Structure formats: C-alpha cells, structure tokens
Amino acid sequence: MTILAIETSHDDSSIAILENNKILKNIIFSQIDIHAKYGGTIPEIASREHVNNIALILQEIKKVIKLDKIDYIAYTKEPGLIGALQVGYLFASAISLAINKPLIAINHLDGHFFSGAIDNEILYPALGLLVSGGHTQILYAENENNIKIIGETLDDAVGEAYDKVARKLNLGFPGGPLIDKEYWNYSGKRTSIKLTKPKTEEIYDFSLSGIKTQVINIINNFENRKLNVPVSEIAYEFQKTVVEYLIEKFSLAIKHYQVNSIVLAGGVSANKLLRQEFLKLHKNVITPDLKYCTDNAAMIAKAAQIYLKNN
Ligand code: KG4
Ligand code: ZN
Fold it and tell me: Where do the annotations place Fe cation binding (predicted)?
C-alpha cells in the first residue's frame, strides 16, 4: 500500500510517500527565511509560498514514484492557517481526481502524535506531550483510535512563548532553536534571574503567558534603566523554567495514568533539554527523530496508514 501525504498547515510545505509502512521520501520546503524578515509567520505569504512550493515538491516526488502507483492521498485537514490548509486540500483533491484514488483527511495533531510511530512502536495505553507553535496538550491514548486531551494550555502555546520571548531578545525567528542554543551556552553559570511557574485550576492544564510576561517585564526593566540585557542568562532561565514546568505537569499525569509508553511530539519536541528530561520519565519513552518533530508530511502519511488499518 502506498500513501502520498501533503502537509501545508503552517509555514512548511511538505509531501511524503509511505510505502509498505516505511517512509520512502519526505520532502520539506521550509518558508522560515521568508517569514523571519517579519519576525513571525504571515498567513497570506504562507499560502502563496505553498502554491509555489507544492508543485516543485511534486516534481521531486515523481522522480521516486509514478503517480499511478499511489493508493491513497492523505492531507492535513485541520487545525492550521485557513489559506494554507486550502492549498493542501485543493492540491490533494486535484491528484485524487486525476488518478482516481481516495482522499484521507488527517488532523494535524494526530499527525504529530503518530510521528512517534514512524520509527517506534507506541505501546498502549500511552500518554503524549504535544508541544508545538500552536498547541500544548497532554494526551491520553487508550489505543490508536481513542485519543483524549486531558490537559492543555489556557493561553499561549509553548512554541509561541518561545517565539515571542526570542523576538523580544532580538534573537530571530523561529525562537525555539535559538533560545535552546543560548541555554546550552549559558548552562553551568550562576543566574540571578528567577521566574515563577503559574498555577492552573485543572492540574494537567498549562498557562505559558505568565512566564512570557515575566520575561518581557525583566527585559523592559533592563532597557528602561539603559542597561545591557543579559540575553543568554534570560534565555537560560526561561528555558529552564518552561521545561521544568512541562515535565512537572506531565509527571503528575504519569503517576495517575498507568501507561505502557510515553510520547513526545510537536516542534518543541526538538528541544534538547526537554528531550533529555523526558527520557528520564518512563521505561518506554518515544521521542520522534528530529526530522519528524517540526511539521512534515511523513507524520500525516503515518497517521493515514494507522487510520486505514483501523477503519
Ligand atoms: O510543530 P511545529 O513545526 O508547527 C506547529 O504546528 O506549530 O512547531 C513550531 C514551533 C515553533 O514555535 C518553534 O520555535 C518551536 O516549534 N521549536 C522549538 C525548537 N525547535 C522548534 N522550540 C524549542 N526548542 C527547539 N529546539
Ligand atoms: Zn505542527
């Protein structure tokens, strides 16, 4: 069975081929350089770039496989930027009509969760920590068909907080990898900056905007006093606090739900400190390969294959 998958929910245009349960090809055209100029993703530009990129990626894909060998076309239905999703849907529909093969609509967040299943076996029941630019959730997966959100952010997503703090520190976009780098540069040194972790009514929910605001106030304070902003030290303290916070909340869920594996997913799962700390939490830990952490079509193909197996 061969699945062609298309992912255009945000600012990465990606097409992948899954053949006999293996990812044969996963091509990603990142738009980061274009959006970096504006300090964040501009939805209208993202849609236009997807239109340009997607046809180019298909040319690359056609070098690997003939379109008539494809059995299903999977695409990201939601959530994401409306215009960007539309490009993927229209493109998937056109291929589906041209080769007369069925379309499969995939939820982007299921894609992130199942990215862990590309190279590993998720043992159920499982708990997932999904951390991306748009979402921060704790998932309880009874089995492949039954995944419940048991906690989520009440305000900013983790990746969003990373990107906003990085912008305020003039580090660039996307902020996650840049703050991660500053963290390791500063690691081991003394710090005088302290951040507090927010409390939420529901134990598995998160609130990230408070940590972000504390950081912004600290930076403003340095600037108002015409002092140099200690960029690395602030980045260090921010990452330390955020990762501790995510790990503390997720540990509470592990204690309550007796699961057979835990899965880390989403763009922020590329974070070196988070991966390191997550690995200590359980005997069966699944962290996706770095190329499957941020948005990619391989995870959409994998989610489609799992859907077909169960339906
Ligand atoms: O999953 P993703 O590619 O897109 C969404 O579905 O949102 O996640 C993108 C997010 C961005 O906010 C980016 O800053 C963050 O993932 N990110 C990281 C790292 N690499 C990417 N955050 C922290 N540490 C990283 N190494
Ligand atoms: Zn994503």
Answer: 108, 112, 295
Task: Looking at the structure, tell me whether residues 144 and 228 fall in a common domain.
Answer: yes
Quick: pLDDT tens for 205-228: 999 999 999 999 999 999 999 999
The CA-to-CA distance between both ends of the chain, in Å, stands at 15
Q: Are residues 30 and 108 in the same domain?
A: yes
Tell me the residue type at 304.
A
H or E, element range at 84: helix 82-99
User: Would you state the pLDDT for residue 294?
Assistant: 96
Within 6 A (CB) of ligand 1 lie: 10, 132-134, 159, 162-163, 174-177, 180, 266-268, 270-271, 294-295
Flag whether 163 is marked binding.
yes
3-state SS, 202-250, equals CCCCECCHHHHHHHHHHHHHHHHCCCCCCHHHHHHHHHHHHHHHHHHHH
Same domain, 27 and 88: yes
169 and 59, same structural domain? no
Q: Are strands 12-19 and 103-107 parallel, antiparallel or unpaired?
A: unpaired
Residue ID of nearest Cα to ligand 1 atom 8 = 267
Q: Are residues 136 and 272 in the same domain?
A: yes
**Per the annotation, does 68 bind a ligand?**
no
Domain containing residue 297: 2-119+289-310
Chain-centre distance for alpha carbon 109: 8
Rounded Cα gap, residues 298 and 4, in angstroms? 9
- Tokens read off for 17: 């081929």
Question: Do 95 and 139 share a domain, yes or no?
Answer: no
Pocket test for ligand 1, best of 7, 32, 132, 287 (most atoms within 8 A of CB): 132
**Residues in the chain with pLDDT < 50?**
none
pLDDT in tens, 138-149: 999 999 999 999
Could you tell me how many residues make up the chain? Answer: 311
Q: pTM here?
A: 0.96
